[in-house]
Every structure is written in C-alpha cells, then in structure tokens.
Amino acid sequence: MAQEHLITNASGPLLNEDGSLREPGYAFAPPFEYSHDRIAASPLRIKDWDYYLANDDEYAVCLTFSDLGYIGLVSASVLDFANRTYKTTSELLVMPLGRMGLPTSSDVGDIEWQNKRCRVHFAHTPAGRRLSFFMARFDGDEELDVELLLDEPPRDSMVICTPWATNPKAFYYNRKILGMRARGGFRKGALSHEFDRSQSLGLLDWGRGVWTYNNTWYWAAIQGHVDGHVVALNLGYGFGDTSAASENMLFVDGIAHKLGLVDFGMPVLPDGSYDYLEPWHITDQDGRLDLAFSPEIDRVDNIDVAGVVSSKQHQVFGKVSGYAVLDDGSRLELEGIRGSAEHIHNKY
Predict the structure, then answer these.
(1) Is the pTM of this model over 0.90?
(2) What's the DSSP call for residue 64?
(3) Residues 322, 292: contact at Cβ < 8 Å?
C-alpha cells in the first residue's frame, strides 16, 4: 500500500488562520475542531450534511439533512429489497446559508428543524443517536414517519481531511461511522416496518467543508454480520486531492483495518456510460480486496435548478461477496453482505 498519512495526537482547529486545511490525512476518530469561523470562502460554498441509513435484509431507510450554502436539502428514501423498488422525496430550501443548525461536531449537538411539510429531530441521548423524521406527501398522499435508535457505536470510524489541489481554501472533513446497531422502524402509508436490533445496522455519513463547484465521487458502504461478527467496509475515491490519504477501511467488530486505493470495476456500455445494474468487480491495488457486487436497486435522484445547481446520483444497492484481508494477513470471507455503492456528479 502506498504510504498514507495517519493523523495522530492532534487537537485544535481544523483550519489554519488563512482557511487552508491544517493537516491532510486520515484518522480513526475526529482529530480536529470544525468551525465556520476560519473558513476563507463565501457562505455559498460551505457544504454541511448529515446522512443516516438503517437497514436489515428487507428494507432500508435513508435520511439526509444538508445545508449546501445556496440550497438546503431535507430528503428521505425507503428501499424495498424484496420488490427491488424505492421512493425518494426531497424538500429543497433556497439560500439557507448556514441557518439550518447543523452541529459542528459528529459527537455532540442536535438537529431540530421543521417547516410546514417536514419535521427533523436528530438527537444524542444516553441510549444512542435518536432519529425522528416526518414528511407529509412523501409518496403521493402518503406520509413518512421514522423513529430510529442507533447505538453500540464502533471503537473506530473513518475520518478523512481532504484538500483540493486547485483551491487551497477548499477542504472536506468527513466522518463515517458504520456498523451501529439499529432499532425502531418507519411507517409509510399503510406500510409499517420494525428493525430488529440483532439483525439491523445503521451508519452515519457526516460531512463538513468547502468544495469546488464541479465534483464527482464514488462511495461504497457495506455492513453486515459474518459468523457472529459485525463487518463493515467504507470505500471511496474521486473526491478532492487524496494523495495524503484515502477513505478506504475495513471494520471488524468496530476495529479498523486500513486499505489502499480501490477501483469499483463498474461495467461500461459501448457509449462509455456505466451499466449500473450489471455486476461490479471491486478491487484494491494491494490484493487485499476482491468483491463481486451484485446490484438490485439503482436509486436514481437527479436535481437540476436552472442548470446552475445540479446533482446526478446513482446510489446502487445490492449484495457483496468475496474476501478482504485484515492487517494481520488473515482472510475474511464475505457472502451476501448488504451494501450500497454510488456514483454521483455534483455541480453546486
């Protein structure tokens, strides 16, 4: 594996006084304090979001709350794996400019927000992360009501501090916590589903930063049970200058094993576009990862506001089989673990 920079014994601000990223690299827990105070960019360029997902082998529910400067997004998705269907509905907000109340830490601080259509309350409690979400007219006249508790967080998480080579004042501070236990459920119209915490897992994708305008990323989040162990993979590339560190990690019972660069091996059509629902072959550069990803649902969500703000999203859900090699050289066999892998192109 190419040498990557592990951030150790760090504290204090994420950014230098000039707004540049203090120390590019990766960590297993948040090493720095995030604040808008040192950002040397327009409020239009600040991008903050929390994304949660909970799933078992039947359903997944995804919740997004984001303040992207000149646009805000409150979004939910429900995925039905048996029928290979999904529904995504988003509420767009104009020019929130940091007023949506996202906390500056991934460990403390709650989100409490509502308008005439939606109600969002993401809270830290002694029992865990309690997620309460309501959206009217989610699917036609059907409401969506979600109540979840994510607990038993892993010891390690994926944290990355990423700059952009083209703009020294742009950065991406990201934490992904995979393999939390999930319980609770959702109600969509007449459909009601409960998540059993012994079988259900949850994750958080917590992102803060200043981005350049035009970006593409690839991200996969895989989590499940293997012989009584909770196993998760966070894989990604394409976003910012990752020469100091990638976000690729394997987790076994909450312990991180760092992986090098990966490729999703997405099938390509004759016109050069991707065939998202054909099998993918996910590998890494060091021979520690070899996965067959079998797609089931391509969750497409495209946003276009006057050609200036756009997001073209393919979040593909399916099952993964293959192997991963731990830091001690032992081989972990994976068979039919659920996950998602996405290709997203944003201009905002």
Answers:
(1) yes
(2) E
(3) yes
